[in-house]
Amino acid sequence: MLNINNPSLLSFLVSSEDDGIAVTNPAIGEVLGYVPIQTEQAIEQCIEQASIGQKRWAAMAAKERSGLLRCWFELIMENKEDLARLMTLEQGKPLAEAQGEVVYGASFVEWFAEEAKRTNGETIPAIAGNKRLMTIKQPVGVACAITPWNFPIAMITRKAAPALAAGCSFIVKPAELTPLCAFAVAELAYQAGIPRDVLQVVLGQDAPTVGSIFTSHPLIRKLSFTGSTQVGRILMEKSAHDIKRTSMELGGNAPFIVFDDANIEAAVQGALASKFRNAGQTCVCANRFYVHSSIYDQFVTKFDAAVQQLNVGNGLEDGVQVGPVISLQAKQNIQALTERAIEQGANPVSSWQPLDGLFVAPVVLKDVTHQMDIVSQEIFGPVAPVIAFDSDEELIEMANDTIYGLASYFYSQNIHRVWKIAEALEYGMVGINEGIISTEVAPFGGVKQSGIGREGGKQGIDEYLDIKYLCFGGS
């Protein structure tokens, strides 16, 4: 049930399915409540309001915007427990993980509250004595975003905070499966003093309709999307008509590499953190494991022993480390991919059996080859296929053999190898002897078909700013 300490966070709920979308707890199948949906005309009105509000917001002093964002951050932190409970109820991840995401999501608001005061231009040495050259940075205008269900707070704040800090207005369409957190954090923004026309949450009859409005409306100048590469291609194509700016954080197929000189105990712990966080439902989680043949059996044995200790269940229960997957379709996809790998010759290290409901038992697969389907497809579930390799050259070729290039990980204690592999991996992010790499202070994003643009770090706010060059003559 939606029992929380701050009922104002739920003021957006409507009374019945006739007025909105039902939100269901994936752990037990209970309907949590109904979230309002808007017509196409209503969403277009939201965009028009955002355009009007953006001009007032951009005219506000950067320090004042910074103060409002700081207040938003503080309110998110004050309501951390309620937000985490909402997240576990609608998304399924264990409560401790949900609490971690709330803090992580809030960190972007805190970071960009400071960056709002640092959107500096520059002076340029002139080529003639009677000229003065400089640049200034200005907000792109109305920005919109489409966010996924797996990180229902962090994926919003990572986009909204830099947009607002830059002076843009911001409209977000959260995933229909996990909209509660989106409306709740927006309510806290309003309580912090951020105008309602400057930050808006919308849901339509279906996702493609909202996407079409966002990509075609002339008042929207920037679209940020986190989701599949397939959908990202469609949104980029549609955005091209108006030459809208886009940021795309798309699919991943992260390799996790363990060299023969690695600290195996540390690699096992890093593998657990990277692979099984959020039941394996993250775009940067390890998707395929490459282990040097000389330590393959040792690593697999220790890794599997640790995986067998993971407790699967309702995320609100004490001691649960792996919650449900998000939907029946997701479970079926994971099971089909795993069963196909077994048909192709992979073997579960320990007994693997289907679980009831939307739960999937974590499993380590050995005897996997690089040619199997499970290696080339994003699993998005708690399944860890482990592949043996013999040389650095063979490893690099296999690791880069994918259209994706978001995150990668490797463990080695050889400094010469560290530099060589870090530079050779064709990925936007590389974790070296580390399984968790995301932070608000560093740029997040991929290469190849994993997307364009960066979120977080000092680079994140530039995605929402235009550079204007000024040339003063007659000096």
Question: What does this entry look like structurally?
Answer:
- It is globular, with a radius of gyration of 23 Å.
- The N and C termini lie far apart (69 Å).
- The chain folds into two domains: 7-251 and 449-471, Aldehyde Dehydrogenase, Chain A, domain 1 (3-Layer(aba) Sandwich), CATH 3.40.605; 254-401 and 407-439, Aldehyde Dehydrogenase, Chain A, domain 2.
- The protein is built from 14 helices and 18 strands.
- 38% of the residues lie in helices and 20% in strands.
- It has helices spanning 40-59, 62-78, 80-91, 95-115, 154-166, 180-192, 207-216, 229-239, 264-276, 296-307, 328-343, 373-376, 392-399, 415-424, and strands at residues 20-24, 31-36, 122-124, 132-139, 142-146, 169-173, 199-201, 220-226, 245-249, 254-258, 286-292, 347-348, 363-368, 383-389, 407-411, 429-432, 451-452, 465-472.
- It is of the alpha/beta class and 475 residues long.
- The longest helix is centred in the first third of the chain and has 21 residues, at 95-115.
- Keywords: Oxidoreductase.
